[in-house]
Amino acid sequence: MKIIDKLAWIEIKNGKILSTKSYGKEKYYIPGGKREGAESDVQALTREISEELQVQLIPDSIRYMGTFEAQADSHPFGTLVKMTCYKAGYTGELKASAEIEWLKWLSYSDLESVSAVDKIIFKQLKEQGELL
Question: Cα angle vertex 46, ends 42, 50, to 5°?
């Protein structure tokens, strides 16, 4: 079994979660990505969010939210994605960059437009009353 280790930033406003769609992809994903080399979670997440969304996470505000696993989209069966999620404040204005085609605020009703691991996260956020 192969595991893809990813980090994600959970940003919720008005009961909706910030999601991104990369060029060439059909589904929306919670923003984040993979670590490079010996990066810590905070270093990797801060770098990925800066690259993708042109904002800076505030390091002292970064808080662990949970780790979730599911079948990885567009990978052979048995390839799992492990998504370690954090909430954090940020500075700057959200803008799509790099491989990001779209930014969109999604609600629970958008569940079918996200990846399998994101569905698990959406369900937990809905149960906690954070997602409409």
Answer: 175
